[in-house]
Amino acid sequence: MDSSTGFAQFKEFFYKDYREETDMSLMPFKNEAFTDFTDEKNKAAFEEALAKVKSEFGKHWDLLIDGERIKTENVIKSIDPADPDTVVGTVGKATKEIADKAVNSAYDVFENYWRWTEPEFRARILLKAAHLLRQRKHIFSATMVYEESKNWAEADGDTCEAIDFLEFYAREMMRLGGAQTLVPYPGEENNMYYIPLGPIVVIPPWNFPMAIMAGMTTAALVTGNTVVLKPASGAPVVAAKFIDLLLEAGMPPEVINFCPGSGGEVGDTLVGHPKTRLIAFTGSMEVGLHIQELSAKTQPGQIWVKRTILEMGGKDALLIDATADPEYAAEQAVLGAFGFQGQKCSACSRLIIEAPIYDEVVAKVVEIAKNLTVGHPSDNPNLGAVIDSSAFKMIKDYIQIGQDDGGKLLLGGGTKEGGYFVEPTVIGDVKEDHRIALEEIFGPVLACIKADDFEHGIKIFNSTQFGLTGGLISNDRERLERAREELHCGNLYLNRKITGALVGVQPFGGFNMSGTDSKAGGQDYLMLFMQAKTVTERW
Ligand code: NAP
Ligand code: MG
Hints:
Elements: H1 8-19, H2 40-55, E1 59-61, E2 63-65, E3 68-70, E4 75-80, E5 83-92, H3 96-112, H4 119-135, H5 137-147, H6 152-176, E6 188-196, E7 200-203, H7 211-222, E8 227-229, H8 236-248, E9 256-258, H9 263-272, E10 278-282, H10 285-296, E11 307-311, E12 316-320, H11 326-338, E13 348-354, H12 355-370, H13 389-404, E14 408-411, E15 415-416, E16 421-422, E17 425-430, E18 445-451, H14 454-461, E19 469-473, H15 477-486, E20 491-494, E21 530-538
Parallel strand pairs: 1-5, 7-8, 7-10, 8-9, 10-11, 12-13, 12-19, 13-18, 17-18, 19-20
Antiparallel strand pairs: 2-3, 4-5, 6-21, 14-17, 15-16
Helix pairs in contact: 2-5, 3-9, 4-6, 5-6, 5-8, 6-7, 11-12
Bound molecules: NADP nicotinamide-adenine-dinucleotide phosphate (NAP) and magnesium ion.
């Protein structure tokens, strides 16, 4: 955008088109209902969406920089992990020069246009996008079936969460958009407003390629910031489709730069750029800490202290005490451990069981997990493939390390032909200092650890550098109360599985090396994307 364009040109546009037409009164936020696939109608609709997505395999998306579609020399190929010969689609691949241009454009557009727009105007675009996404829900979910190997319910959950973020953040912006309540002072008018920050670099992971990507991107946009989105290289197609949808919903193309590229190559350019104001990142601890370090270094010409939102890995545990019902506990453990092949930051990867019921719970876990099916997710098995060849290799290595350290393979451990399939794997006799009890694996591998007593269980629970999700299953009131205080993690679940946080219901974010605890889907979240300005006028 030409930096001389300025605010005036747009003023008429957003007042006319948006302000007068839309009714400000909104239904209260409600989580999007998950699709019931036992209903034949829904099943047929989903199969139709799968066929439609398949028929469009190989489609290409160009970058979107400064409001223009840009062709690149190189492309990123997005592969079906359950059938790696299949190319789901391709997207352009940015160079360092393009990444630099994207941030410069985001800065100009921020200064000359987007920061001056009305919060309600921006919120309404999110509401419209939520409406469109709801209509095309199965297309987005079916894309994730092929691109990330999610089974139907996992893919549907991801799309529903994205809809929730749009609806929730739109309402949140309307709440935070006006002057905030202050203590009155005689002879003066005092106001405090939340205003936007500047260009925001959004770097999501591949594992919730709709929810987290859309959540971070729209939180940044609705608060009046411009965005450079660098999607994860394993999940660019679903992100490209979402950008198309945002534009259709009325998001001005200049405010959202779609800038796929290798994290290693363009990441440092985006993060280190003097005009980048905030980096909203979700991904591994290693990359998060690298971003933290690089963004802390002031660059020539930089006029602000960069902010970071860094949500990172986990080594999440479910503690089961001797008063728990072993059957129920085992069911909840299996749900948390193997959903989406264990590739959730919230996945249960440590099962800590009090000695008296250790054998019984472990036997039940094996019995339940034994029946889980593995296959191409278009056939809706319990587990699809893991994301790529390096994840496949790393998970296999960890299964070996677990045994080399003294763990006993109780279930799985093998792989399956045709794609990056790893069987649901249970390893028993794991000790709290074994590597598979401490390091994030990000695959379908559950480490079972025996605790001498409840006290010891708490100690093991808190013995990693992470602190994302966790839980306790118990029938003892006193222990449940202690768990609330002493189990140190951002999202603690008592007497249920430890995955599946809902927007608005369980704001999500982790402690310690799991991140900055930004609590996505909570009432504090949007404030991280803004700064407060206090204005006083004396009469
Ligand atoms: P990742 O390898 O850290 O990648 C995350 C993003 O960072 C990708 O877009 C990646 O790009 C980019 N990146 C890589 N190197 C970079 C650099 N030097 N500078 C800037 N960006 C860079 O994580 P992932 O494998 O996608 O996701 C799995 C991890 O995410 C797990 O650790 C999981 O626990 C965590 N996670 C956390 C949460 C949470 O809420 N705490 C939620 C979901 C996932 P490329 O794809 O091009 O490499
Ligand atoms: Mg990775």
